[in-house]
Structures are given as C-alpha cells and as structure tokens.
Amino acid sequence: MNNSMNKTRKSSHGQSPPTFSNAVDRISDREMSMCLFGSGGTCCRNCNMGPCQIIDGVQDLIGVCGATADTVAARNFARIVGAGVSRQVEEAREMVRALRATVRGESPFMIHDQPRLVELARLFELDHVGLDKNELVQAVGERLLAEFGNQEDELALLKFVPEKRRRIWRELGVSPRGLDREVVELMHRTHMGVDQEYVNILRQTSRCALADGWGASRVFGLLNDIMFPAPPPASAREGCLRNDKINILIYSQSPLALEALLNGLDDPGVKSSLGNSRARGINLISGAIGEQESMVQSGAVDVLVVGGSCVMPAACKAARLFHTRIVSVGNSIKMAGAEHFELTGPGGLENARAILMMGIAAFAKRAKKEMDEAVEAVKTTMRRHDSIDARGLARQIKTGAVRGIVFLIGCDNYRVHGDGHLDLAEALLSHDILVMAGGCVSESLARAGMMQGDDVWAKAGSLLTAACRELGINPVLSLGQCTESNRLLTIASSLIEEGLGNDFADLPLVVASASWTSEKIVATGQCMVASGITTFFPNLPVRGSKPMIEYLLDKCRVDYGANWVLEEDHRKLAKAVVSHLDGKRAVLDR
Ligand code: SF4
C-alpha cells in the first residue's frame, strides 16, 4: 500500500502537506495484534448476557447461555455471509430500479441491448410478443422484482443452473427462494437462541450465498449488459490523476454513478462551463479500496463521489483537508460533510450535471502544486469480458493447453503487505492456468499491466500463450465488478454444455483469493463452494472451532463436491491450486 504521504514528510515545495494519518499509519499506531477470539470467530455478542469469548473444548469457557464454539463460529460466519449477500442484493435492486426509471424517462440511462431483454422475458415465460420497449421493460422489471420477494418457490433464475447441481441443492434443502427471504432467514436463525446446530446454520448460509451468486449477481450482470455497453479498454498504467483536468473520483461497485456522469458530459451547460475553465477536460476515475486515501491525499481530486460499499470513512476525512468536494449518491449512503444526490429517479440527469459543475468549480480552487505529489492511480473502466468461445475453451482445456481456470477475487487489505493478487496471478499463469479476475483484483492486475499489452504474455506458460492466441483472448480476463461473480458461473455452465463434465465439481476450475477485506467476498466464496467449486482463501474467521474447520475444509465436500482451502502463503496457495486442478483433470481424462 502506498504510504508515501505520511504525517511528517515535506512536499517538493518545502511545505508540509496537510496532516493526515492513513490506514497504514493507523495500523502501526494501534500497535495491537488481532484479538484471537474475534479472528477465530468465537467472540459472541448476540445478547446482553455477553459478550462471551469462547474457547473450544474448555467446559468453563462456553457462553453464558451455553453456546459452544461451533455454534458461535457458525453464527458469526453466517452473519458475515449474510451481510455480504445483503449488499449484493441491494446493488441488484438498485439496477432494477434504474431500469424501471429509465423507461419512465426519469434516469440518465438508456436501454442498449433490447434483444437481451427479450431473452429475459422468454426465460420468465412472459408473453412479450407485441409489447413495445417500454412495456417489455415494465414486464421484465416487475418479474425481476418478484425474485426479491419470492417466498416458497425456487428462484426462476435457477433455470441457468445445470440440472445435476439443482438436484444436489434440492436434496440438501438449500435451493434459494427470494433474495430478501434468504437474508432474513439467515439473520433470524442466528439470533440468540434460535438455530444452534452448526451444520444446519451453514446450510442456510449456503442457501443465502446461492441467492447472491445465482440471483442478485445474475440480475446485476444482466441489467449491466442491457443498460450499459462494455466500456472501452483503458490503460491502467498511465496514472490517471491529471494536473490539467478535472478529476472526479468515484467509489462505487455499481456502474450507475459513472454512467450517469458520463451521460451528463453531453450537457450543453456543462460543455460551456468546461470551455470557460482552464481545465482540458473531465477525468472520471473509479478505483480499488486500497487507493482511496492515497488518491485523495494527492490533493488532485476535485470531487469525491461515494456510493455503495467499501468506502473508507477516512477518505472523506482526507478530502476535507483539500478543496475536494464530497458527494454521496444512491439511497444507501450518507457521510458527514457530503452533499447528497440521487441519480436514479426524477432529476437524476440534472443531479449528474450538478456534480460535474461542482467539479468545474472545485478545479478553479485546486492548489496546483499539490499535483507534484500525485500518486499513480488506476483507471478501472477496463473492458469486462462479455463473451468467450466456450467450445474453443473447452477444447483447449481437454488438450491440456489450458491446464485449468482460476477466478481471482478479493480486495486490497492494508494489513497485508506486497501485491498478493499479482504474485498469485503470475504464479498461476506460469503453470498454463487461465486467470479470470473480478473487482479490486481486476484493478490490481490492470495496474500491473496484466489486462493488455505485452508484459502479461511474458508471464504466461507457452501452452497457455498458444491457446489464448488461438482463442483471441488475453491470458488474464476481467469479469467486471465484484458484484458480477455470476459471470464465472455462466462461463462454467457453458463449459459443461460443451461436454466438459456434468457438474461444476467436475471442472478444473477454482476460485482463489490472495487477500480479502469485504464481507461480500466471503459470500461469493461460500456460493462457489456450494456450487461445487473449491475455493482457496488466505484465512477465514472460523479457526476457533475445530468442528467448523473440519466441516468447511473437508466434510462439506460430501455435500457439495467442493470445500474451502485456507492458506496464507501465496506460493503454497498457488501450488495447492495447481495440484487441485491436476486432480480434476485426471478424473476428466478417465
Ligand atoms: Fe454469550 Fe450466548 Fe449471549 Fe452469545 S448468545 S453473548 S454466547 S450468552
């Protein structure tokens, strides 16, 4: 993590930058190691007789209510997943709201992909013949919203799941119903004194995680495709804070804020004000969690737009030390000192224009000397990989030219040193493994030049290089935001359709993470395991319970055909991944 602007360093102009302690400083200032009960998952504060710190196997150190380590660790793990899923569900709901607002003319967006809308109508068995575009959006929007409130039946979106996997879920009783329903079910079950048997709690955890990966994430991805065309590829290595441009920094996993501002750029009033300013353009930037503070600390950000999750409160604190205006968007987030705007609904386009005008006004006040300190930043509007030649990829996997596929997920984490995402990706590429990445990992790999250009090819093994050239793909592919994990499941389903096994558990395909911060990432991991895809993480807060560890790392394979693997050392993790993929290949070859 960049800690180049610490509290005492002088700028190149001999002036001290405004005092601000960043996340790296705060970790070192705390001088505290992590609490063993918290990191082991056995600290319970679910009722007012606690908090209780529980030691597995020590009779005197169970909870006041009698809860044992496995119950408490399962409840805590479930709530991590539940919180992650709830965030994803809300992001998906925002997309449906945006779709419906668009046909009412109340949003700054457009419908770009009507054929895909028709496909969706067919999936839901809607009578769409003769409907005009607005009626079609209305019908599909209502049907999508029904997936959130569904009470008893399986999600209609499970039609995308291969039949064998659906049968497994039905037998286990984990087929997800409504998106909201599964989060509520998980929260009430983990209330003090409700569900106490850890495997049963973990079953609901899986059900909730599946509602995300196969429901919320699918809705998000479909509507992203329907409303927003894939962005053009952008170089992430240039460093994108510009001295001569208005820098508007956007932190949100949803594309809504970025797209609204992009549309606002066409406004004649904005163009005229921009022409009268000294700025040479407006620079819209989105970035990963680990860059938030350092980018704002450069003094070069004119507007900081926050919406969605993973916004560090300290980034806004840093912004207040400069001329930077702070804006919150959407119906989920407000911050002290931020001006709030709604971008979806009546007045959305006007609000987008207002934010751009704020940037133009703030640019005039920017202290130009601060730009000398600007840190390298990343432009994240990378092209997400919308389609892949599944038949060709299946063929390359069968021949062994592509040894396997790894989907890298995760986040920057200030407690983790070095660039684990990059280390892991490079190790996998050298073993002829195709790397797919989402969210912050995509951004990290883009920053390192792995999404385009020559460098990535030098890291890839010779077999993988030849296979990717034949397929016309980069050895590292971005699958979009961390909210879009379903894109991997879609690719995996296509491989099965092409005859590569009968189920996800048959495929030489895993999910891996070098580091994580957000609860959403754990939710994605649990969805993958429950879908039959073994998932490698550096750590999970469950080690305080032996039964939990035994179940997640081993016994759950009986249920799902996949399990978690925990390994903090990136080299060992890569080795374990290669060995796992080879094991799957050996079975496929029989
Ligand atoms: Fe302690 Fe039980 Fe209350 Fe948890 S639910 S805080 S273990 S008494």
Task: Kindly describe this structure.
With 590 residues, the chain is of the alpha/beta class. 47% of the residues lie in helices and 8% in strands. The protein has helices spanning 23-30, 36-40, 69-103, 114-123, 133-149, 163-172, 179-189, 198-227, 256-264, 268-276, 292-297, 313-319, 348-363, 390-399, 420-430, 440-447, 455-459, 462-471, 486-497, 519-530, 546-560, 570-589; strands at residues 43-44, 52-53, 246-251, 282-286, 303-306, 325-329, 339-341, 404-408, 433-437, 476-478, 509-512, 535-537, 564-566. The strands form three sheets. The chain has a six-stranded parallel beta sheet, sandwiched between helices. The chain has a five-stranded parallel beta sheet with strand order 4-3-5-6-7, covered by helices on one side. α3 (69-103) runs antiparallel to α5 (133-149), α3 packs antiparallel against α7 and α9 packs across α13. The protein starts with 22 loop residues before the first helix and ends with a helix. Iron/sulfur cluster is lined by residues 44-47, 49-52, 63-65, 67, 72, 192.
Low-confidence stretches: 1-14, 371-383
Class by SSE composition:
alpha/beta
Mean pLDDT: 86
What is the tally of beta strands?
13
Q: Helix segment count? A: 22
Beta-strand content bin: 5-15%
Instruction: Tell me the Rg in angstroms.
Output: 24 Å
How far from one another are the termini?
46 Å
Strand order of the largest sheet: 10-9-8-11-12-13
Spatial shape: globular
- Name the bound molecules: iron/sulfur cluster
Biggest sheet overview:
6 strands, parallel
- The residue fraction in helices comes out at 40-55%
